[in-house]
Amino acid sequence: MLKLNDFPSKVTALAAFLLAALAIWVPSGYSYAAVLLLLGALCFAPRWLRQPPESATLKLALLFAGMGCMWFLLSLDHGAARWDKGSKWLLGIPCLFFIVAYPPPPKAFMAGVPLGCIGMGALAVWQTTGQGLERATGFTNAIQWGNLALLLACMAGVCVAVFWRLRAWTWRLLMCAAVVAGIAASLLSQSRGGWLALLLVFPVLLLQVRQIRPQWFGRLLLLSLALVAVVVAVLAFTPSFNERIALAVTEIQSYLSTRNGNTSIGNRLDQYRLVAQMIPEKPWLGWGAHGFVQEMEQRVARGEFAPMLVHYPQIHNDFLDVWVKVGLWGVALQAVLFAYVLSLFWPSQQRLQRWPEDSWHWHEALALRAMGSLVPVCYLVFGMSQPFFNHNSGIMFFVFYVAVLWAALRGLERGARTPSGQSDKPEVVPA
Q1: pLDDT higher than threshold 70 for residue 4
Q2: Higher confidence at residue 379 or residue 262?
Q3: Residue spans per domain, the chain
Q4: I want to staple 11 with a disulfide (CB 3.0 to 4.6 A). Which of 21, 40, 78, 281 is the partner?
Q5: What is the mean pLDDT of the chain?
């Protein structure tokens, strides 16, 4: 029988599962877990408010608050709508405190990962074959869809690598199918920029392996090179992807020769040329969101840039968009957020030594840390060619995936015991 005291933990476990399981193959699938956590945070506030957050969690919450305030400044809306994106960062704070106070078991999130990947893969196949769409878009745009599918596929890949020796063949086959499905969803979206994330993901994961299992580094390096070769081969024999690459080359050549900014790549290059002019004029505090749009429209009206530019008030680069609108402090805030999240999750032998080596909890902690470190790494690359945080899915995935993975990790560490059976002291996480 479920006890009342256990109910908050059941809520967070269900939310962790739904966050990965529904992903974005269900309309606003990421919102169900978020709403559940918010309701839990409100209902059980008298209980979790009595538990002071750890320093590391508090710093993460402060960074969320800073991003929420910054996105209020970045919004072009008026009235209450101006808080739309900023509120998602701010509402993530009570959810973070609640879920850290009642952490979900790692298996809750990990059980949802294969369902999320397979759901996205199946929907992508249906949209491109059953509905005849040129690109799989899920229930958002093709770029967001493809990039987030790739991120979830990478998380499934981490689970495969970490638990391979501990799980049965049925589980291995399921997880391998999940990786393939997630990659297929990304391929069918024809998103080009997101695949550049793999150029950073593989080195980061290999560096982690070298720190934790140096004796495996050589073999995994060869395996990684083989996987890269397979990915390149798949891309080389994917007609739609080749067409997209060929189109990108043509658009770049067109821009360099004629300044044609009325194409997808040409528009991005026009945006980068625009901010290269505007940022030096107001580098510290920026032009403001509305000030940027007004100045951009004036320069287009003078014929300095292609007319297509006025249809995109956001620069297709998160850091440049922040810099030109709110100044260098905004760039520093976002950079600190990425660096801090990476530092929170980065695995090391010292952080894993609280468990017997190769124990089940040791593998769970390693998987959580590796998956958590992938979030800022992938987002860093995703945001280089797309205003990723300008989309609800981009914000919600970052805030709640970080919160859930961090809470599961802290719960695992708080319950850790040394090999002698004595309770271990909570880890002090460096800022």
Answers
A1: no
A2: 379
A3: 7-195+337-414, 258-326
A4: 40
A5: 89
